[in-house]
Write a structure and sequence with these properties.
The protein is α/β, with parallel strands linked by helices and about 425 residues long. It folds into two domains: about 160 residues, Cobalamin-binding domain (Rossmann fold, 3-Layer(aba) Sandwich); about 210 residues, TIM Barrel (Alpha-Beta Barrel). The chain is built from 15 helices and 16 strands. It has a seven-stranded mixed β-sheet, sandwiched between helices. Strands 10-13-14-15-16 form a five-stranded parallel β-sheet. The protein has a two-stranded antiparallel sheet with strand order 2-3. Strand 2 and strand 3 form a beta hairpin. Helix 1 crosses helix 6. The radius of gyration is 23 Å and the shape is globular.
């Protein structure tokens, strides 16, 4: 087995774009997701090491010694960080030209040719579900025989091997939490809506939905929801609970944990026996009977993707939902402290007559449902209209009388915070 380093490279200050972040960006609050997509192959490769530089505030000088101690380095990358990540690749190759260096992540999965062309020092990229692809590279196998791999051959030509079939027996994947324990400081990971410290990992991969805006199912995870057995998940929770007594909450990062209702109910009942507080992603169509089972067994919070209360917009983004089936806001009104929907944002276009979510006593023209926007918050109360008018007046005043922030911003310098020395 090659001596392997899995690396989330130093990047922009505060950049939350690691191998697990759903939206690669610098946020208005401190936020770092666990590098689960790197921890999983790291768990497969014996003797490997994982370095997640951004949340641990590491510079290139901190990771440079690894270049001469490793045979193989696998970097996770994303579209926003790619240009800075290939700087890291070049710097590592300068230190040790014999290194084999590859990349994984959604960016290289959808554009393997462009990624390899952008950096001659890059030896390969792992496409789509890359866990066992990387494991076979670390075993020293001939690149030509590794499924799911794109690489540069001895003549410098870019070669794309056949696709690797997706994994169906998810219990073949080892736990990621022992890698967290070995290589990460969990207190460095933050989620604005999660108790701190928290731990997140997957109980399954893929999502049957076809939402046009969602990253992982369209690039790495696929559209078949493949799950670990309940016993396998519970065994990892038991291990992690003992290894991390300071953890206040576990977050299951499956795209939609509630897509398989019998399984999530079974999982919840087993979690309830452990006395663990937990949260997960969900759609707005979870039956109240299921919600009660989850809540009674430790569920604290649901991240619900409503996206819109307008049926045409839901069709446009291929959400696969009807507004009259999204009954979760009513359940949230009954148990608001246990459900935390994602904000839907402000919809555009024609929203006439499509206000199925409004409160039974709330008129269609009420400001709370104006423009068809639905946030999943509690129904509007008396006096909201006047407050909304005042809010709009204040915003208008800022636009008219306030300074032009655009003129105050410096010219774009996308790499000014890259720590390469």
């Amino acid at each position: 087995m090659m001596k392997t380093l899995f690396l989330q490279a130093p990047s922009f200050e505060g950049f939350d774009g690691g191998a697990g972040a759903r939206y690669q960006m610098r946020r208005e609050v401190k936020s770092f997701w666990y590098p689960t997509w790197l921890a999983q192959p790291a768990a497969l490769v014996e003797g490997s090491k994982l370095i997640d530089a951004p949340p641990h505030r590491l510079r290139f000088a901190d990771i440079a010694p690894e270049a001469n101690e490793r045979d193989l380095i696998v970097l996770h990358t994303s579209t926003p960080s790619f240009s800075s990540d290939i700087k890291t690749v070049r710097a590592l190759k300068d230190l040790n030209p014999k290194l084999k260096i590859g990349m994984v992540g959604a960016k290289v999965a959808v554009d393997p040719t462009g990624s390899l062309q952008a950096c001659e020092q890059l030896d390969f990229v792992g496409r789509n579900e890359f866990d066992f692809t990387v494991k076979e590279v670390a075993e020293g196998r001939d690149f030509a025989g590794i499924k799911g791999l794109s690489y540069r051959d001895a003549a410098g030509r870019i070669v794309h091997n056949e696709e690797r079939p997706i994994l169906h027996n998810m219990d073949e994947l080892p736990f990621v939490t022992p890698v967290y324990k070995r290589d990460l400081t969990i207190e460095n990971y933050f989620g604005g809506y999660l108790l701190h410290p928290y731990i997140s990992f997957y109980t399954g991969r893929g999502c049957k939905s076809r939402c046009t805006f969602c990253l992982w199912p369209q690039t790495v995870g696929g559209h078949a929801y493949r799950v670990r057995s309940v016993g396998h998940v519970i065994d990892e929770l038991k291990w992690a609970k003992q290894a991390f007594p300071q953890v206040k909450e576990f977050f299951f990062d499956d795209d939609t944990l509630t897509d398989n209702l019998p399984r999530v109910e079974e999982l919840a009942r087993e979690i309830g026996k452990l006395g663990i507080t937990w949260s997960c992603n969900a759609k707005g169509n979870v039956p109240r009977s299921t919600l009660k089972i989850l809540k009674d067994n430790g569920l604290r919070l649901l991240l619900v993707g409503y996206e819109s209360g307008n049926q045409q917009i839901l069709h446009n983004i291929k959400k696969g939902m009807r507004v009259d089936h999204q009954g979760l806001p009513r359940a949230r009104h009954r148990h608001s402290r246990h459900l935390h929907p994602r904000p839907a944002g402000r919809d555009q276009g024609n929203h006439r007559g499509n206000h199925s979510f409004r409160h039974r006593n709330q008129p269609a023209h009420h400001p709370g449902v104006a423009r068809g926007a639905v946030s999943g918050d509690l129904p509007a109360q008396a006096g909201d209209g006047q407050r909304l008018v005042c809010h709009r007046q204040r915003r208008a005043g800022r636009r008219v009388g306030g300074p032009d922030r655009a003129t105050q911003l410096p010219a774009s310098q996308p790499h000014r915070n890259l720590r390469l020395g």
